[in-house]
Amino acid sequence: MSRILPADGVEFEFTVPVVVIGGGAAGMVAALAAHEQGAGVLVLERDALPQGSTALSAGLVPAPGTRWQRDAGIEDSPERFAADIIAKAKGEPDPAAVARVAQAVGPALEWLADRYGLPFSVVDNFSYPGHSARRMHGLPSRSGAELIDRLRGAVETAGIDVLCEAHVTALYADGALVRGVEITRPDGSVERVGCGALILACNGYGGNRALVERHVPELADALYFGHPGNQGDALLWGEALGAATRHLSGHQGHGSVAHPAGILVTWATITEGGVQVNAQGQRFSNEAQGYSEQAAIVLRQPDGIAWTVFDERIAAIARQFEDFRQAEAMGAVLSADTPAELARLMRIDADALTATLADIDRLKATGGTDCFGRDFTGAAPLVPPYRAVRVTGALFHTQGGLVVDDEARVLDGNGARLPNLYAAGGAACGVSGSKASGYLSGNGLLTAVALGRIAGSAAASAAKEETNR
Ligand SMILES: Cc1cc2nc3c(=O)[nH]c(=O)nc-3n(C[C@H](O)[C@H](O)[C@H](O)COP(=O)(O)OP(=O)(O)OC[C@H]3O[C@@H](n4cnc5c(N)ncnc54)[C@H](O)[C@@H]3O)c2cc1C
Q: In this protein, which residues make up the domain named FAD-dependent oxidoreductase 2 FAD-binding (predicted)?
């Protein structure tokens, strides 16, 4: 459905200076930024209610040097954050693209708080793999549903038009200049809206099986945990208009989705000293490297299943997340006073699990590193009552996409700007490189918020210049 049609002779019902496709975090932030510049903005969202993958996420946005960090005594800077991003992705991302978002995201969160009343706070009681400072920021419920609801509220209060059940099924273009969009309504009727500038905020291709098979074959059969409407339209339109694309195999996986409950179990369960075992009660990897690469590793275990094992102290930290509370309410989190009793509930071999947990205790007591390379120095021992959740690996979202410049303008293969096309969030190439292991926690909402704001402001300025010409 992601077609490019000739604009020649097409009559648009009306024309808006800035059209945004997609009502997730990237689209809502872009709309707010464009509106503030005085541009007329229209957000087009295929669903009846804008939610996107943003609503499914934990809503945590990494940002360095914020006032919330300063209040909590956390030292951080955009340079330090950029170094963490580049280290996690082993030098693959473009340093300029990384610096751009690392610098923009902190001010963007403070702007959303000050101007639109989003009550962010910093998660200061556990660390995510690869982050050298505690810099994840979230709303009170620590859920993406709250993030998108509050962004939508801000957009509505600002008086920005959001058209729902408005599936953009084609772009109208003269060469690479986008003149407008075709919207298909649920009853099959079609409307045509002209645009001065177009912001693609319709995320990546995680929901498009053929594109996942092509670009992320190792997760082709994995559970897709993101929004099904993210069908790769931005990528397909961009490619057809001559845009450069990059790192299309890059993605965010997750190795700890409760199964069959289908609920994200926070990785704090691991970073705070928990481990994963397989159905034989044995460990199989260095889980501490990161949850993204752990998706494919878990899927290689018998039946594609693992158990995340931790204790009540860690569960208390995890309970700040709505998802975790839901998993507990659904009975997905098992509890027992001994490893043998836990194994009985898990229906796995009790001797094997007891031996595995004894090994972990020993490593923690001696500050040792295991045969997979996980360093247990400083980790607190697991103490009764123990907890376990049955999990599987899943694809959360894709990280590759359209190459953009410092104004979030889409570039062609020669590095030249397409005339009026912008991309933000999962529609744009992220900062995770080409592998799952390159994904640093929060890279998803990082580019949604940071590039969303950049794209909105730049598209509005360009549309104004065009009007004044
Ligand atoms: C379970 C889960 C947990 C996550 N946790 C985190 C986290 O804590 N921190 C983090 O940084 N990232 C996290 N992520 C990733 C994060 O959710 C995404 O990177 C981010 O939400 C992308 O925002 P977006 O606005 O680009 O896309 P989305 O929020 O997916 O919005 C895109 C919107 O575009 C609409 N759309 C698509 N095509 C069209 C079309 N043709 N016409 C009209 N509308 C269209 C869709 O319906 C959708 O509403 C998580 C992801 C998942 C799945």
A: 18-434
CA end-to-end distance (rounded Å), the chain:
34
Does residue 230's CB lie within 6 angstroms of at least one atom of ligand 1? yes
Ligand 1 atom 2: residue of nearest CA: 57
CATH value at residue 450: 3.50.50.60
Alpha carbons 85 and 353: distance in angstroms, whole number: 35
| Domain-ending residue, one of 367, 395, 423 | 395
DSSP secondary structure letters along 129-183: TT-SS--EEE-TT--HHHHHHHHHHHHHHTT-EEE-S-EEEEEEEETTEEEEEEE
Among candidate residues 395, 429, 451, the one where a domain is terminated:
395
Mutational pocket test of ligand 1: of 171, 202, 320, 451, the residue with most ligand atoms within 8 Å of the beta carbon = 202
pLDDT digits (tens, 9 = 90+) for 271-317: 999 999 999 999 999 999 899 999 999 999 999 999 999 999 999 99
Nearest CA to 427 out of 20, 9, 11 is that of: 20
Express each pLDDT in 340-354 by its tens digit.
999 999 999 999 999
Q: Are 72 and 124 in contact (CB under 8 A)?
A: yes
How many CA atoms, within 13 angstroms, populate the side-chain half-sphere of residue 274? 31
Determine the distance separating the centroid of ligand 1 and the alpha carbon of 172, expressed in angstroms: 25
Nearest residue to 243 (alpha-carbon basis) of 298, 165, 176: 176
Determine which residue's CA is closest to atom 50 belonging to ligand 1. Answer: 57
Q: What is the pLDDT of residues 385-413, one digit of tens each?
A: 999 999 999 999 999 999 999 999 999 99
Distance CA 446, CA 60 (A): 9
Q: Of 423, 2, 412, whose CA–CA distance to 201 is shortest?
A: 423
**DSSP H/E element including 264:** strand 263-264
Q: Mapping DSSP to helix (H, G, I), strand (E, B) and coil, where does residue 309 land?
A: strand
The number of folded domains in the chain is 2
Q: 228 C-alpha vs ligand 1 centroid, how far in Å?
A: 10
| Residues spanned by the domain of 108 | 3-247+400-468
Which of 292, 320, 397, 441 is the best mutation target for the ligand 1 pocket, counting ligand atoms within 8 Å of the beta carbon and taking the most? 397
| Parallel, antiparallel or unpaired: strands 136-138 and 61-62 | antiparallel
Q: How far does residue 288's CA lie from ligand 1's centre (Å)? A: 25
pLDDT recorded at residue 2 = 75
Tell me the whole-structure pTM to 2 decimals: 0.93
